Amino acid sequence: DTLFAAMRLLKHIKLVVVATANSVAHLSIPDNVKVHTHIPLAQAHNILTHSQCMVVPLRDSQVPCGHVTIVSGMFFKKAMIVTNSEGVHDYIQDQHTGLFYQPKQVNDLAAKIEQLWNDRDQMHRLAEAGHQFAQAMCTEQSVIKYFTDYLKNLERHSS
Questions:
Q1: How far apart are CA 30 and CA 121, in angstroms?
Q2: What is the pLDDT of residues 3-50, one digit of tens each?
Q3: pTM (2 decimals)?
Q4: Which alpha helices (DSSP H) does 10-158 contain, by range?
Q5: Of 3, 12, 93, 143, which one is least surrounded by beta carbons within 10 A?
Q6: Biggest CA pair distance of the chain
Q7: Domains along the chain with CATH numbers
Q8: Dihedral over alpha carbons 81, 86, 91, 96 (to 10 degrees)
Q9: How far apart, in whole angstroms, are the C-alpha atoms of residue 89 and residue 141?
């Protein structure tokens, strides 16, 4: 609801939403928003590939989800605007790997979308920093290294 309300303030910007039908069924969709539901992953990736940036709206500051969506966007080199939620602080550093907006704050979200839309240099910087973070921290190889180091550390401390 916050995202669509923000988009009503930004009539000059078009938004493409990929979501489940249940998550948008009760919402009034603005004219500048196109919604895709239950689409194949390849189609979702195609939409992401051709997007300028990505908005990840979460219900509130306590929602522990959005990680896969955020990391996918980072691997696709997309600048992120994300709800400031505890569950995503490991991935988004405000003004570095993305922009936070306050939960349920329509004007804050609209301002962040407008800011990024009008500043392509910032959009590029955020996208690059996010991509570098994903490459360093979110690949299979980085997870293997983390757990290998963790287990070696456990072994050292148990002997």
A1: 28
A2: 999 999 999 999 999 999 999 999 999 999 999 999 999 999 999 999
A3: 0.88
A4: 21-24, 41-49, 67-75, 106-118, 120-137, 140-158
A5: 12
A6: 65
A7: 2-158 (3.40.50.2000)
A8: 50
A9: 22
